[in-house]
Amino acid sequence: MILLYLLRRDLRISDNVVFSAIVKSSRYAKLIPLYVLPPHQMQLSDFLSSLEDEYPYPEARSRLGRFWRTGPRRAKFLAQGAWDLKQNLKERYNSDLIIRVGPAANVVKEWLHSQELGDEIGGVWMTRDWASEEMDEERDVDSAVNEARDKEGRDIDWKVWNGEEMLIHNDDLTHPAKNTPDVFTTFRKPLEPLKSNVRRPLPPPKSLPPLPNRIPAQSSPFRIPTDYETFLSYLEAPVQDLGLPKQISHPPNARSAHPFEGGEIAAHTRICHLLASGAMSKYKQTRNGMVGQDFSTKLAGYLANGFISARQISAYLDKFEDGQQPVNYEEDGLMRFDESPGYGKGENEGTKAVRFELLWRDYMRLCMRKFGTSLFSVHGFRGWQQEHADAPKYKSNWLTLSDPEVRDAFTRFQLGETGSSLIDASMRELYLTGYTSNRARQNVASYLAKWLGIDWRLGAEWCECCLVDYDVASNWGNWAYVAGVGNDPRGRGKDAKKGGKKAGKHQTSKVIGTDEGRRFNPVKQGFDYDPKGEYVKAWVEELSGINDVNVLMQPHKAYEAKRKNSAGVPALRERNLDWVTNPLVQIDYARPRARN
């Protein structure tokens, strides 16, 4: 019998519940690892066999902003990861990752009735993903399998496994998902100490059943390339144009903070580097940084695609804290830990903070399970909560793209031409590299939602398009959190007031759609987290010659008489840039003088 294993966000061999289970099963002599590219989330038109073929699916664009669901940076990261798994299965198990174009249920249905396999398929397994689209996909596959079972009387073993995607195992949670507390602290405390409450990851299987001799071809009108370069080009090429009115040029001195490749091997290499270099132990002190590769872990993208699991990360932390080297580190080419500060000295502030972040990731997933599609509602989690409780109804008045002035403002936001330097640096970095720091993301979300009053979901959609490390629960949950419609007790204050001065025709803060409980002042945040302006200078090339940090963080101050002769200011004034003279919101902040 053949087992069909449908992979999604579990693109790894180690700590993989299905690969571990198949080894223990005597039912299956053959195994097909199958990865189906979803046309509702990825633009797959370049996989067409001929230019004359008609693409049978709608474009994979977001609902509100009509942005690509998967932009070129994430498409490349995902392609690298899928091909990495493909090669690992070939080299280590004489197997393969079979790639097809979806929908997944259609592929499963075709294969269940194919001449090559037909009645030989005795099982269809997959892991559960609690995001709404993935749950729909699971139901569709369920229907395809049950149709074959019920109408044809076939004995098909259909099983959906717990994907082991969280730090805390589903069976070890103190509350069922539907009763997840609305405040993170209430959720967190019963699970501490985290180090003692995480299950051990599953080891990689020693062997896997081989592939069957014949495998159904990709159905018309698509083709699947046999080499990585073509596979990558098919994913990247259709989504290169992100719809902006002009290109954002890459500043000569800007370096990506996320130059890493996707895949299981790259994920393990990255975490070993963080531990061996000491960066992990310093994480709590550096996590609000903005420049460089090691101020944060950069593990989110690996987690989002299942190249590594949260409990694998925790296991690495355990080994480091307990004074143990990674298993087979010499054979696998991994770095040694024993020369790193903190090695063998137990949990430190950095490793504890990383576990905390992994638990926050769990919390966002559980909130997604609890609130369902409310995650994508303009009212967010709060709308769901008020429907299920006797509470004052939440009212909002978000600005939308139906207003041409708002559309113009949002385009400037995407281009990094708002006139708020920290925001502009972050948006340009995001567009050019697929990454921006957590501190910058919070400021960007706050700026769009609470300074401009623009529908926060447009920002979440743009991040879905651009981010290498996009994760549905974390992205949408954190945007809702900062916008004041998520699980944030500090984000629920009184209605927001106008926070900025009018600054020309682009001023959009005439109506604020949410409260000001967590509204960041991006100028103050720039002074606090980029005190020398290194980040802003790197990504906003027009400001690279400015030495006066007050002008650097508030470019409109270049036109103040007392600053007109500061280094770089005359040249900036000569350019007469519209986004400098007319910021979307003129946010002023007086930097406190240093005390003697």
Automatic annotation (TrEMBL):
Binds 1 5,10-methenyltetrahydrofolate (MTHF) per subunit. Binds 1 FAD per subunit. Pfam families: DNA_photolyase, FAD_binding_7. The keyword tRNA-binding does not apply. GO terms for molecular function: damaged DNA binding; deoxyribodipyrimidine photo-lyase activity; FAD binding. Belongs to the DNA photolyase class-1 family. May have a photoreceptor function. This is Cryptochrome DASH.
